[in-house]
Design goal:
single chain, four-stranded antiparallel β-sheet, two-stranded antiparallel ribbon, alpha+beta, 12 helices, about 60% helix
């Protein structure tokens, strides 16, 4: 059963030990970085009082779908008309806006943010550049790097990561491998080319979401595992944090910092995965209007 080793490990370790100072500092730095990131995003987009009552979608020119806040058409940060390629994605985005309460919290609206990124393309990249950026994570993929000790963590990585590695090598008929060397495994060029072709099969919007998921997990392998429905979001996130979870089981966590990190990563990863599937959707649905 997936992640069975973590449960077994927790039982073997027994009671929580005192924090090692280095780990405590590491967790505090991680928390501060996340909070600063959230604040910066908030400053960039600002939380603001909700200014609309009704959210609806409509089909505009070229068959694209628009989001309407009362009678106002939603626009991107650059002022571009906010349009999405299909009705399913439009409904999902509209749901984010409809779920907002008295205060709009833009940093919780991950689908809207991904749409803005695809529409405004702030870094002005094309598909080839996005694919190249995504493939860089394959060379430093989370589950390719293995420790040599302690033995409990070595076994945990083998038990939890090896099945995923075996799956993706069989699924895509490639060789990846793993290494405990600081330089990581030597990824064959044939493997990179296979993944390059696979990434190129996605449209620009879906690729925007897939690259986002890869950066969240620091893993091409885990991202593909989710997109192909081999892994759930919860499994992929926990596997991406395997060493950290091991340390937490051994030393404990820093107050609520662990939960904050975990839930934030789950939310971003889930949104990115949903975005990939919705951006690849070509069919339409009947519902045109979101109602309270």
């Amino acid at each position: 059963m997936m992640l069975r080793s973590l449960v077994s490990l927790h039982c073997r370790l027994g009671q929580t030990l005192a924090f090692p100072q280095r780990y405590l500092v590491q967790r505090q730095k991680s928390l501060v970085a996340n909070l600063q990131s959230a604040r910066c995003y908030g400053l960039a987009t600002t939380e603001r009082k909700k200014f609309y009552e009704d959210v609806s979608i409509s089909q505009g020119e070229g068959g694209l779908y628009e989001i309407n806040l009362d009678r106002r058409k939603l626009k991107t940060p650059k002022g571009t008309l906010f349009t999405v390629p299909n009705e399913a994605l439009a409904i999902a985005v509209a749901t984010e806006w409809d779920a907002q309460k008295d205060t709009l919290k833009f940093y919780t609206m991950h689908l809207t943010t991904l749409c803005n990124t695809a529409l405004d393309n702030p870094t002005q990249r094309d598909k080839d550049q996005m694919i190249a950026a995504a493939l860089k994570y394959l060379e430093t993929d989370t589950i390719c790097y293995r420790v040599e000790d302690p033995q409990a963590l070595v076994e945990l990585q083998q038990n939890e990561w090896d099945p995923v590695m075996e799956w993706i090598e069989k699924r895509y008929n490639v060789v990846i491998g793993s290494s405990s060397d600081i330089m990581g495994p030597q990824i064959p060029e044939e493997t990179k080319e296979t993944f390059r072709q696979h990434l190129n099969s996605y449209n620009f919007w879906a690729l925007t979401g897939l690259e986002y998921v890869i950066t969240q997990l620091k893993s091409v392998i885990l991202a593909f595992g989710m997109i192909d429905r081999y892994l759930t979001v919860e499994q992929a996130v926990l596997l991406s944090r395997l060493e950290e979870e091991y340390q937490i089981q051994r030393w404990g966590s820093v107050e609520w910092a662990h939960d904050y990190d975990l839930y934030e990563l789950r939310a971003r990863t889930a949104a990115g995965t949903l975005f990939v599937h919705l951006a690849s959707e070509s069919s339409t649905v009947k519902r045109k209007l979101l109602q309270d």
